[in-house]
Structures are given as structure tokens and as C-alpha cells.
Amino acid sequence: MNFYAIRAIYFHEMDRMRRTIGQSILSPVISTSLYFIVFGSVIGSMIPELDGVSYGSFIVPGLLMLTLLTQSISNSAFGIFFPKFTGSIYEVLAAPVSSLEIIIGFVGASASKSLIVGIIILFTASFFVELQIQYPLLMLFLLILTCLTFSLFGFLIGLLSNNFEQLQVVPLIIITPLVFLGGSLYTIEMLPEFWQKVSYFNPVVYLINGMRWSFYGASDINIFISVVSLVGFLVACIVGVAIVISKGYGIKN
Amino acid sequence: MQNIVSIKKLSKIYDNNFQALNNITLDIKKNEIIALLGPNGAGKTTMISIICGIVIPTSGSVTVDNFDIIKDYRRTRSRIGLVPQELSLEQFEYVFNNVSYTRGLYGKAPNPSLIEKILKDLSLWDKRNSRINELSGGMKRRVLIAKALSHEPSVLFLDEPSAGVDVELRQEMWQVIKDLRNSGVTIILTTHYIEEAEAIADRVAVINKGELLVVDNTSDLVRSMGQKTLLIELQEAVQALPTKLGSYNLTVLNNGLSISYNYDSSSKQTGITSLLQDMKEAGLKLKDLKTEQSSLENIFVELVREN
């Protein structure tokens, strides 16, 4: 194992976060904080409790997931796409580095960045809404698992993208609607029966409800099903990345 | 001399069915400078990219220091440094950090003093804390060389190292390349500049349309394939060549005031003595004589045209 290479890629990517701290940290924290202020403190004070918790507290897991998913995907997609775009990917390909080491470096850095943003958002949320975490270890486990899984998914998108438009398509047109329609701001039970059934086909519903269960011990979906769904998606991403990178698609001729 | 890179029957056909390399076999000797010459699209960059692991070959094999580039890719790649043709650098990074990053990629522990030496050798030490987008094109080219040297490779590939570099810097770069060879590094460079190959390469390989046309020592190639021309200046202009001189390969120039004679300098009988004798007998009076050697550029153009 080329540990120096993994370290080099990891810190190289983390350094990009330091150089673009406004975009990497401040932007997601500020936009999520605005949700807490508007939906949590202002509008939330006029909405009755859901599942026994105030509306402001109820939306924290969903908004946390929204940020984790979009950040993880965009961090790793951009992380691998940018060297492709500038041509500097050549030095990673020409170095004595295995595909696994490349993935660990890029995905590890992306997941770390998302984790940092997630923890800052949780801390920030505590200023605006009443925050309680019933199962902190499970919450941390889900947080890390989500960051890793969606960083891998983003890495796959970055490998397959040939331009900036393709890079943005999945996060903006697929992930964001799925998160908003996945019960981040409401419970599935609030929907008409037909849309409740449709919602169960939305994979993000399982992620948000899993995270919500770790906070409040209650959710629309059984926690076991949520964790299995997330692990299943992680495995699918690992297989996808393994196939794409072994064929050199998008990076090698 | 021991071979450090051995290429055997190497072919590459891209997805669009373009055949970039066709059955190339070439041995590169340890501690030599070899120049790969060829027009655009000849296959030079594809060949380098395959050896470095960036492009997957269609068939054939390559070994570096007797290790296969696919089976033993860690061993081969750790011995190779690559300076690409394009200025492929992350523009917002700092010079020192970026060079150190490359060393890490090659599995080497951080060594700030070595990076300092490399940057000083390449006159980049003053720019170590500058962002790459603040550097000139020539400096960026040197950053690429510094990155390629950061892990102390024994084989260095330079893809068009002088592209976009001014004359003074080109001379400096040639000196850097010669110094590297003197320190034990094998240099493989591709170039469009024939004078670059003539100035620094021990051997020249001419590639065209994916095929290797010739490989030889630079000086031997010029000697064996080069034509020489004898230019004879006359005291009085001639309207037409005397019939006695009809058997020679002569051309009348300069309104009859000069005659040129092409001959093969490597043959035992050049025909110069008999020509001069016959000219005297034909009554032509000579004013001056000079010879010209065809350059590597002439040979290159001729080879590519024939191919």
C-alpha cells in the first residue's frame, strides 16, 4: 500500500478546502442556518409538534442530510473532475498508485470535508432550535456512512462527467428534489396515501428517517431498514466505482 | 550498454480505430539521451503515455529496468519521471507544495531539502511561495520538470520540453538535461526542434504514422544518410554545361556563375577528383570551392516524405 500517496492526495484535496473556505464551509453553513432561522425559528414556532418534537428540531436531521448529500457529492465529483479538466490527472495516473489508493485519497478527503461541514451545521443548529440526540453513536455512524457513500457516488459522477454541466446534473436535478421530497421538512404520514406509496420509492426517505430516528427515536421507517438501505447503496457505489476505474473510463485511453 | 527501457511489438489502436502505434520495437540504453522525432500525430506522445501508464496498449510489451509496465507497474512508475507536453498544473497552488505533492504521489517520504535543491537548480527557489498562475510559461515548464524530478527518477520523459520556451531558456533547459544525464538519468525526449535533437541527443528515433522509421546515433545518422554538396564558383559564367561533364550530377546556379555537385560522402569514390580534372580539361576556370553537409532536418524531412 502506497500510504504516502494516499496521504498526498488526501491533504492535497483538504488543502483545496482551506483555499476555498468560503465556498467549502461558509456557504453551506450559512444557507443551512437560514433554513433553521426561517423554517425552524420563524415559521416553525407557528407549526404544531411532529412526532412529539418541535418543528424546528424536527427538520434538523433532514436539513443535515440535505447538506451532507449535496456536499459529499459535489466535493468528490469536483475533486476528481478538476484534475481531469486541467489535465493534471496525468500525474496521478503516472504515479505508482493503485485504483484503491486513489479512491481512498479522494473519497476520504471528500467525506472528511462533508463531516466537518455536518458537525459545524449541527453546532450552528443548536443556536436556533432545541437540539437533542437520543443515540449519538448511531447518529455519528450514520453521518460517517452517509459522507462516505455519497462521496463515492460523487466520485463516480466526476469520473463519468465530461463537462461542468454533466457534473451538476445529478446533484441539482436529482439529489436536491429527492431530498426535499424525501421528508426532510415533513413526515411521510402528512402526505395523501398515493404520494406516501410513491415516497417509499425515494431512497433518500430511508436516509433521512434513519438520521431522524438517531435524533428522536421515532421516524416513518424502521431504523434497521434505513441502515440496510444505506449500506446497500454504499455497496452499489463501490461496485460502480470499481468497474469504472478498472476500465479506466473517463481518465485513461 | 545495458538497456533500461525495452519496447517490443507495441501497438495502440484508439476507440475511434485510429492506429497511433504500429508494432514498435525499440531499446533505450541506460544513461543516454534519445530524441523521438516525428510530425504531429506520429505517435510520440502515445508511446510515452503507454510507458508511463496513462494510456493502455492494445498489444506488445514494455519493460523498464526489466520490470513489466503492467504487471510491475509500481516498480516501473517509481523509476519514471514525466514532463508532459501541456502545462497541466493546478493554477492556484503554491510551487513548493505542488512539487512536494508529486513526491508524495510516488510513495516517497517528504524531503524539503531535496525539493529545495531541485527548485534552486531550476532557478525556481525565489518562486517557491508563488501561486502557479503567477508564473510565466517558461517557469511553469520548469515547475513541471521539478515535479518530474521530485521523486528522483532514473528515467525521465520530456514531451516537447522546449515548446513555447524562448531561445535563452531553451539553452538553459538543454544544459539542465545534459546535467541530469551526467548525474545518471536516462532522458527520452520528443521534439519538433531538429536542432534540439542535434544539440543534445546521443541517438535519434524517427517516428511517422505510428511506425519507427530509423534509430541511430545522431552523428552516424547525419553521416550515413546525409548528402554533401560541393559548390563550385566560376570566374566566368557558362551558358550550358560542357558535354564532357554530362555524366556528373551537376546543377548550374547563380546565372551560370556557380555549379553544385551532390555526392555521397560515405562512399569510397566521391567523384570530386575526376570532376575537377574534367572541368579543367573543359576549360572552366574556378574561383572558389566550398562543401555543405545536409542537416538532420533534411534527413528527417526526406524520411517522412518517403514514408
- Name the CATH class of the largest domain in chain B: Alpha Beta
- Dominant shape of chain B: elongated
What's the total count of β strands of chain A? Answer: 0
Question: What gap, in angstroms, lies between the N and C termini of chain A?
Answer: 25 Å
The CATH architecture of the largest domain in chain B is: 3-Layer(aba) Sandwich
Question: Could you give a quick summary of the protein structure above?
Answer:
The complex is a heterodimer of chains A (253) and B (307). Chain A has helices at residues 3-19, 21-43, 55-86, 89-94, 99-128, 136-160, 164-180, 193-199, 203-216, 223-247.
Structure characterization notes:
- The complex is a heterodimer of chains A (253) and B (307).
- Helices cover 77% and strands 0% of the residues of chain A.
- Chain A has one domain (3-247).
- Chain A has 253 residues and is mainly α.
- The two termini of chain A are 25 Å apart.
- Chain B is α/β, with parallel strands linked by helices and 307 residues long.
- Chain B has helices spanning 44-52, 73-79, 95-105, 112-121, 137-149, 167-182, 194-200, 218-225, 272-281, 296-306, and strands at 3-13, 19-29, 33-37, 59-64, 67-68, 80-83, 155-159, 186-191, 203-208, 211-217, 228-234, 250-253, 258-263, 286-293.
- In chain B, the strands form 3 sheets. In chain B, strands 6-7-8-3-9-10 form a 6-stranded mixed beta sheet, with helices on both faces. In chain B, strands 2-1-4-5 form a 4-stranded antiparallel beta sheet. Chain B has a 4-stranded antiparallel beta sheet with strand order 12-13-11-14, with no helix packed on it.
- Chain B is elongated.
- The interface between A and B is medium-sized, with 26 and 34 residues.
